[in-house]
Amino acid sequence: DKDASIPGRSQVDLGYALSKSLEDIGEYKEAFAAISKANRIQKLELGDRKQRAAERNQFIARMWDKDTIQGLKRSNAPAVKCVFVVGMPRTGSSLTEAIIGRHPMVYDLGEDQFTITSVSRFLKPTQNNITELAKLLGDHLRTRSRGHPVVTDKHLGNAPYIGPLSAALPNAKFVLVRRNPRAICLSIFQNRFNTFGHAYAMDLEDLAHHYVAFDQLMTHWKSVMGPELIEVRYEDLVTDPDYQTRKLIADLDLPWDEACLSPEKSTSAVRTLSIGQVRQGVYDSSRDRWRNYEEELQPLIKI
Predict the structure, then answer these.
(1) Coil, strand, or helix at residue 286?
(2) How far, rounded to the nearest angstrom, does the alpha carbon of residue 74 sit from its chain's CA centroid?
(3) Residue among 69, 117, 89 at smallest CA distance from 229
């Protein structure tokens, strides 16, 4: 697939640009062929490195069942409440965070590195670990909140750690953003992700297996977390933003504020591929875009 006269990195860049241009003029088969070639080149450069999401997620689910979480849950909540926005990439998590962050009581931390780094060090379910994690996170949230009673953390890597985070922060809420898996996986396949953290993103079958592993873990968290975990469907949010936004704010135990209906006015930095979507506000034009590639997505859809 590689042209020896053009460096591999440049071929990948050209492939992404060509695919986008072809999609814009409705040449979907050619667009998919271009992005597939770019992804094959990236995968060749990456080598055989695999992410074992399924094994990791099953291990975490076995450790953090409902009884374990409840048995270790702290009785004292930190002064600052954290809302964790989690989901697969390209689900609408940035838009969801912007909606919540528009509330005057909320300060959004973006993709906060401190929490995910800390919780990954205290994954084993022991009382000492949860006590230490609670102190670290409580102090951190108080320092970063700028006087707000609520903060948001949109680091999607927090999704596997909902159990220990809930035990350490008993007043935390978790907003799981869902979307049609075909739309999610197509968007990941068509966008350039960091290959170190997203080794699954360049192959349709790898993508499918990664999504299934993620979905299984989220099904586990939903079964054990109760009302602490709030599920938001992207398709519902863009179809009926007024109702869904009001429901989300109520589920977070926040008083209603009209500012939440204008996420495009958020002044917070967006450091993800979704910056364009957030700045445009709520729209549904991309909801069924995956149908243009339904034939090409069959290997993924089958899994």
Answers:
(1) coil
(2) 26
(3) 69
